[in-house]
From TrEMBL:
Pfam families: DUF1697 (PF08002)
Protein name: DUF1697 domain-containing protein
Signal peptide: none
Cross-referenced InterPro entries: DUF1697 (IPR012545)
Residues in coiled coil: none
Amino acid sequence: MTRYCAFFASINVGGNRLTMADLRYAFEREEFENVETVVASGNVLFDFDERPTDGLEELFAHMMLDRFDMDTFAAVRNAAQVRAAVEDNPFTGVGLDHNVHTLFLERDAEQARFDKLVADHADRGPEKIAIGPRCLYIDYVDGVGQSRLSNAFIERRLGCRGTARNVRSLARIAAKMA
């Protein structure tokens, strides 16, 4: 069995309210093992046979729509990928942990679209952005709440969805997955 984490987008923000007990129960009904939630923002740890994560992401999107009437995205990563989201982030240890994020994407960002994102954001704020495997690394220098670099801004330019977690949360999740 492989340990995974599903990072759900838009859980308990806006109108998408869901208890973590209900989310855990939905995973257990789908026969995932050792299901555990971390924080109330849609981080679900679980064990399952090793497989490509894109199939799990599709399953979870369908499950959320069917069971909870939520059209959301889940980025699924194994333990090594979660550790890499912290360790490979070039802003980890440079920026403040609560401002440094990894934005998990549903697929690799195309270089041309990433370049457009960086160019379009150049005069909008002090944030730093780097590209990674199926993710972006972002230092929200002055904080996420003050930033004009929103998920919607990023998603429109990249043409794919994503969900972000700060490196402090990711380190905590990685420790639980170990």
